[in-house]
Amino acid sequence: MLAMANTPKSPALQQLGGNLVLAGAGKMGGALLTGWLAQGLDGGEVVVIDPQPSDEIRALTARGVRINAAASDVGAVATMLVAVKPQTFAGAAPALRSYAGPSTLVVSVMAGTPIAALAAQIGGHVVRAMPNTPAAIGRGITVAVAADDVTPQQRATADALLRATGAVEWVEDESLIDAVTAVSGSGPAYVFLLAEELARAGVEAGLPEALATTLARATVAGSGELLHRSELDSATLRQNVTSPGGTTAAALAVLMADDGFRPLLTRAVAAAAKRSRELAK
Ligand SMILES: NC(=O)C1=CN([C@@H]2O[C@H](COP(=O)(O)OP(=O)(O)OC[C@H]3O[C@@H](n4cnc5c(N)ncnc54)[C@H](O)[C@@H]3O)[C@@H](O)[C@H]2O)C=CC1
Ligand SMILES: O=C(O)[C@@H]1CCC=N1
Question: What positions does the domain Pyrroline-5-carboxylate reductase dimerisation occupy (predicted)?
Answer without folding.
Answer: 174-279
